[in-house]
Amino acid sequence: MTDLIGRVALVTGAGRGLGAAYAGALAAAGAAVVVNDTGVDTTGEHPDASVAEASAARIVATGGRAVPDTSDVASFAGAADAVRRTVAEFGRIDILVNNAGVLGSARFADVSEEELRRHLDVHVVGVVGTIRAAMPLMRAQGYGRIVNVTSEAALSRLHDTGAAYSGAKAAVWGLTMAAATEGTAHGVTVNAVSPGALTRMSRGFLEESGIPEGIDLSPERVAEVLVLLCTDEAADVTARVVHTAGGHVREYVLGRPGDTDLVKRLADALAARRG
User: Fold this and answer.
1) Which has more confidence, 197 or 262?
2) 165 is catalytic
3) Can you say how many angstroms the Cα of residue 125 is from the centroid of all Cα atoms in its chain?
4) Fewer C-beta neighbours within 10 Å, C or N terminus of the chain?
5) How far apart are the two ends of the chain, measured CA to CA in Å?
6) DSSP character at residue 34
């Protein structure tokens, strides 16, 4: 697939795992890619510039165009720096993938303010900051593809990933909807992907839960879907949240049905109280 020839992408958290797969797949589709990663561990500590450098080098070694970037998108200044670097290197920005993240599992009784703020900085400030810097450029050129990475942990009770991570990833849903509203009239689509893949961040949980035999949980299967959302084939797709794992795709839909059992139960209770 070479649908993205001539396009320029910025992928945050692209040094390893899913982010590296996204960057590699976008490059394979023809895009020039800025590989943004501070190289920190899963808790956000111990930065290492060689992580972004190695990821970009792998793309170049296979014939793609890529440069590393170590801007810390957990602040507006760092997010703007990453966007500026993209434009400085390749002249424009067409695709933004907000993948950078940290992981924590502390429950409400144990979560510290420091941990909560670290998650909000990376997952929420990072998303707002990069979109804030990239959206005006995309609107001016009449084209843009933004894909935010959320998590099933924020959307269901299947995962016990703690207050900070789940809460921050849930905020990404709302940010996706708000950005999609701003971009609609200007050729800018904004969607979110909830990935299921075996990575350094998910390995512990997935192995503990049990991985079904024969399922391919490689990051590359998720990357296929993300790249599709960045092509002209998905030009009419915006404000959507897609879950994908093992080659399967599902859509998360937030609804407001009026006839559920809970609605009936509450209506009956209110009627009884009102006499």
Assistant:
1) 262
2) yes
3) 13
4) C
5) 65
6) E
Q: Are 33 and 27 in contact (CB under 8 A)?
A: yes
Q: SS3 for 194?
A: strand
Count CA atoms closer than 13 A to 177's CA, side-chain side.
8
Domains and CATH numbers, the chain: 8-274 (3.40.50.720)
Specify the pLDDT at position 205: 55
Residue 61 sits at φ, ψ, to 5 deg, of -65, -25
Contacts of 268 (CB under 8 A, 6+ apart): none
Per residue in 7-24, pLDDT (tens digit) is 999 999 999 999 999 999
CA 59 – CA 239 distance, rounded (Å): 30
Whole-model pTM?
0.92
Two tokens, residue 8: 């320029």
Q: What is the separation of C-alpha 230 from the centre of its chain, rounded to a whole number of angstroms?
A: 13
Look over the chain and give the mean of its residue pLDDT values, rounded to a whole number.
91
pLDDT of residue 275: 78
pLDDT at 162: 82
User: pLDDT higher for 28 or 248?
Assistant: 28
